[in-house]
Design brief:
The protein has helices at 45-48, 84-87, and strands at residues 2-16, 19-36, 41-43, 51-66, 69-80, 110-122, 126-138, 141-147, 153-157, 160-172, 178-193, 198-201, 208-220, 223-234, 237-238, 246-247, 250-261, 265-271, 284-285, 291-292. The protein has 293 residues and is mostly beta strands. The strands form 4 sheets. Strands 1, 2, 3, 4, 5, 6, 7, 10, 11, 12, 13, 14, 17 and 18 form a 14-stranded antiparallel beta sheet that branches. A hairpin with a 7-residue loop joins strand 15 (237-238) and strand 16. It is globular and about 75 Å long.
């Protein structure tokens, strides 16, 4: 296969008092051609339908309340082409119909529009960020819950879908050297795919993710110490469009420490998943309805 990927990008920003307006624009050209050695044929991007022109870009507006706090709004548009594995339906070679013509699974790119609002701030003992977002997809390339013959996860186009949620993060230092760090996100979304009569929720992404860390840093002469623990959690993820199969909750409690001598030698120790919780990073559903972890 041969893929040409060329783009031109421009961006600018304007500052007026406490306001900042930014804008960017990208033109992207993508062309994918393929030579099938089995059929001994070369197919151009025009024949395959894999010749795309994309216009991506966005604008953002920021208002500085003061030097430590600002609020912002963002609007962005982005396009993404399917991967070769998606176009070939999980096969290594390009599928051909009875006439020897390419019979691709999908050549439809996805389009996403993203709107975000947020606040960032910092004080004497903290820094924090709150972000709200809404993403609307057209022809989103979603996981279909199955592995292709090449062993890669497969994707299909949904008719339309959306995802919305909130992200909160902070780092608090109540006393010097003691840091309490948190990053939490909640997401809700639906996938609408009419040909299988589905309106699935929380599909292929977790509704909750959480990362919590607490650590203490100290210096004694030329020796620096760090000791801490963190915990991460990912809620269950549905693996198929019927919301019937799912990966269970993923969680891990970890502890760590380090000693640094004169900024030259560092000794560190990390122990992961000390509660021995069984986690699954990925799963798919086979033709018999079994989950393949």
């Amino acid at each position: 296969g041969h893929k040409v990927d060329a783009n031109v990008f421009a961006g600018t920003s304007v500052h007026l008092h406490n306001w900042t307006l930014g804008a960017n624009l990208q033109f992207r050209y993508v062309n994918f051609s393929y030579t099938d050695k089995i059929a001994n044929k070369t197919f151009s991007g025009a024949v395959l339908g894999t010749d795309w022109d994309f216009i991506n870009g966005g604008i953002d507006l920021t208002y500085n309340i003061n030097k430590n706090h600002h609020i912002y709004a963002k609007l962005a548009v982005s396009n993404r082409e399917p991967m070769r594995s998606d176009m070939f339906g999980g096969e290594e070679s390009i599928p051909l119909d009875s006439l020897g013509k390419p019979d691709l699974n999908t050549t439809t790119p996805e389009l996403v529009r993203d709107v975000e609002f947020g606040w960032e701030g910092k004080g004497s003992i903290f820094k924090a960020n709150v972000n709200l977002y809404y993403m609307h997809f057209k022809n989103e390339l979603i996981l279909n819950g199955h592995l292709g013959l090449n062993g890669l996860p497969g994707h299909v186009n949904a008719d339309n879908s959306f995802r919305t949620g909130a992200e909160v993060s902070f780092d608090v230092e109540p006393v010097k050297g003691l840091h309490i760090v948190n990053a939490t996100s909640y997401a809700y979304g639906k996938v609408n795919k009419k040909d299988v009569c589905v309106n699935a929720t929380h599909i292929f992404f977790p509704s909750w993710t959480l990362f919590q860390d607490i650590h203490y840093d100290a210096n004694v002469g030329n020796i620096a110490f760090t000791v801490g623990a963190n915990y991460d959690l990912r809620s269950k993820i549905y693996l198929a469009l019927d919301n019937q199969y799912s990966l269970p909750i993923n969680m891990s409690l970890n502890v760590y420490g380090s000693v640094t001598f004169r900024d030259r030698i560092e000794l560190s120790l990390r122990m992961n998943n000390i509660t021995n919780h069984l986690n699954y990073s990925y799963g798919s559903v086979n033709g018999d309805g079994e989950i393949m972890y």
